[in-house]
Each structure stands twice: as C-alpha cells, then as structure tokens.
Amino acid sequence: MSPRCQRLADGWRVLVLWFLAVGSGLDAAEVPTNAAGPGPAEPLRSAVLQNLHRVTPRVYCGSVPDSDAAFVELAGLGVKVLISVDGARPDIAMARRHGLRYVHLPFGYDGVPMNRIAELTKASLTAGGPVYVHCHHGKHRGPAAAAMICAATEAWTNDRTRALLEQMGTSREYAGLYRSVAAFHPADVQEMDALGPLPEVAKATSLVDAMVAVDGLFARLRPAVVAGFRGVEGVGETNVVREATLLWEQFREVGRLPENGRRRGVGFRGEAEAAERGALQIKVALGDAEVKPETKVALVESLGKRCVSCHRRYRD
Questions:
Q1: What confidence tens digit (pLDDT) does each residue in 241-288 have?
Q2: Residue 83 to residues 122, 171, 204, 222: CA-CA distances in angstroms?
Q3: Can you give the residue ranges of every domain in the chain?
C-alpha cells in the first residue's frame, strides 16, 4: 500500500472509531487519533505478573492476575478494566475490591472468532481508561487480543500487530492466532450497536464441551500419525505438530475448568493431568525427527485409549 493510501485508510479508520465512540457514549476527545501509532511495546518489571507490557498508554497486556498484589499493581498503572480472553473464570470479586471491573471474552488457541472483534473494540472504547488484556500466561491469546484492540482503536498496521505477537513471545505453532490478527477487519457501527452488555463472566465451557473439542482434534491428528503423514485428507505432514499443540492446550484448558475436581474428584484430576502430559509427549515427539515413527504412533494410540477410558467414566 502506498503512503498516501495508508494515510487515507488510517484516516477512515479513525473516523469510524469516532462514530463508534459517539454511539458508545464516549467523549470524542477520548478516541485516539495518532494514525502513526506508538512504537514497540514496553516491557515492565513485575514480581507478580508474567510478561507484563505497556502496549500503548491505553493498553497493557500480560498474565492472569491471581493475587491482591497483582491487582494493586494494575490499579497503580491506572488500569480501569481487565479484559480476560482465558477460559477460566476471572476473579471479579478481587477485581472489585481494587476498584477494577472485568470483561470476559474467552477464545481458543486456534484463532479469534469474528464476533470477538466488535466485543474487544467496545470493551476498550467504553473502559473509561486503560485496559489490561490477559490470557493465562500472557504470551499467546492475550497478545492476539491486544493486537486487535490496537488495530481497531489506534490504527495499527498488520506489520505492527504481527511485531507485537513476536515481541511478546506468541508461538508460531498457534498459526490461527497469527492468521486472525493478519486478517483483521474493523467492526462496523451496526455490529457495535447490536452488542448487549459485555459479560463479567462468560458462560462457562462444560466438561462435555471440552471433551468434544478434544475428540475433534484427536480425530484429525490420529489418522495422520498412524498413516505416517501420507494420504490423509485434511491433515498433512506440515500441520500435525500444530494439531498436537492445540490438543495439548485443550487438555490444559480442561484442567482449569471450574468443575474439574470440585464435582469429579481427585480421580478425574489425575486422569486430566495424565492426558495433558501424554499430549505434551506427542507434541514433542512429532516435532523431533529423531523419534521413530512407531514411537509416535504408540504415543498417540496410548492417549487414545486413555481418552476412551476416561469418557466411559466421566462423560458417557
């Protein structure tokens, strides 16, 4: 894109943001108008938050705050709203004690759903001050959400949003996150107007939903590995590691579900932890050319048997 076209595009985006802000009840003076955008995110030292960065004066990003000290630190930075894109239930009570509020907009490691763009934009524009965007560790989903907020509200280019993901350590294994950020398209006024109140706590994913997601990933991964990465429609040699990574992350999400352990007990927690370890072994093995194909197949088959056994006890 030529410099002139880029300036026109940036100007149009700022105009759209102005209309969005007016429709959301914001003072137009609060809408950022720096089309050139800020420089790289600023890493901040913290003893209680991982990967903490000041992305812009209005956007911070990092890991989940899980202590009073973490919320104190965020309040001290001037943060008004915490935007969680992690699947776990946010601690809204602790946030309120420190004068903060939550917006919970979770999504997975395979990409950012289209409806989330309008929600993330609205959450940022109506915050009344800086926002803190977080996932669990502050490295993958959180930076993707922060990048989209900056693209929507501060006219960041694709190069700048991609650079943010790279700076914050977002793994290239999560190709869906990079694709979502690269394909960003701003929400329009109608989308914004159609949104109701944004949730403090999103509707929780059930264990059954999570297991269905695991089944889908495993159903794509297993045939490719067993067939030696050849002749399997939809899954080829170039993406089995990615599928294994998503499977591992899905098991990690299962381990953080509120109902994990509370209703299912110690036995289920042990099964979930063992499945997570097994998925990690598969991920590592598939990415290692020195591991024999039969070993890779054996690891996948072992996890499959564990899943069947667990389903019989806890899902079926």
A1: 888 888 888 888 777 766 555 556 667 778 888 888 998 999 899 888
A2: 11, 21, 16, 35
A3: 3-194, 207-314
CB 79 within 8 Å of CB 131 = yes
Cβ neighbours of residue 42 closer than 8 Å, sequence gap 6 or more: 53, 54
- Tokens matching residue 232: 């399997």
Provide CATH code, domain 3-194.
Answer: 3.90.190.10
pLDDT tens string 95-141:
999 999 999 999 888 889 888 999 999 999 999 999 999 998 999 99
Query: Tokens in use for 138?
Result: 């502050």
Q: Is the pTM of this model over 0.70?
A: no
Instruction: Identify the CA nearest to 222 among candidates 289, 310, 315, 308.
Output: 308
CATH fold label, 207-314: Four Helix Bundle (Hemerythrin (Met), subunit A) (1.20.120)
Residue of 8, 209, 170, 24 whose CA lies nearest to 85: 170
3-state secondary structure of 117: helix
Query: How many other CB atoms are found less than 10 A from the CB of residue 237?
Result: 12
Residue by residue, DSSP assigns 58-99 as: TEEEES---SHHHHHHHHHTT--EEEE-SSSPP-HHHHHHTT
